[in-house]
Amino acid sequence: MCIRDRGRSATVTITLTDRTAMADSGEQSFDDMFELLYEIVPEGYKGEIVGGAIHMSPQRSTHWAVIKAVLLQLVDRFGADSLIECDVRLDLPGYRNGFVPDLYKLSDGAEMDDKGKWRYQDVEFVFEVISRETADNDYGKKKVAYAAGEVPVYVIADPCTGQCHVHTVPKDGEYRTNRTLDFGEPIDLTDTVLGMTLSTDKFPRD
Question: Which fold has domain 60-198?
Fold first, then answer.
């Protein structure tokens, strides 16, 4: 087990080479990784698995303020009973990708599988708020996985730069349409499955 920790303000990355190496490469071994993840993630951190490595990043009030601003708009648009999740495991295509998106919306009528997990095929919208420590994943590996899973809309909010990056039209493992908007500019998603415009007026910056 290799741990890289630069303090509470940084991300902790753990590459598993002991417990999971002894398990087979099936689904059970991946679930074992998540059991270990739940055991080691300290209070105030969020953990997920990206490409077989555990990543733990500190949760900040700025990030929650951005997430809450989007969550309230989605609830206002789709209702309190709509299928919207925050910080809930979502397995994506690729090698051991078990993400915990900041927020995602599922299609009406979506049902969990026989293991009690949501299917990425039913996800309509993913929203991630990044920090400097998580930028490589959100802009890189996670974007690739969301595109491979054909998630229709993937939006990244970056409080460090004060910008939102909007990715739509997934095809052949990549997003064909990409836009960058400043905080304060509306995100027009009326031509997507979401069918609404998101306001970013209340997005704070780090």
Answer: tt1808, chain A (3.90.1570)
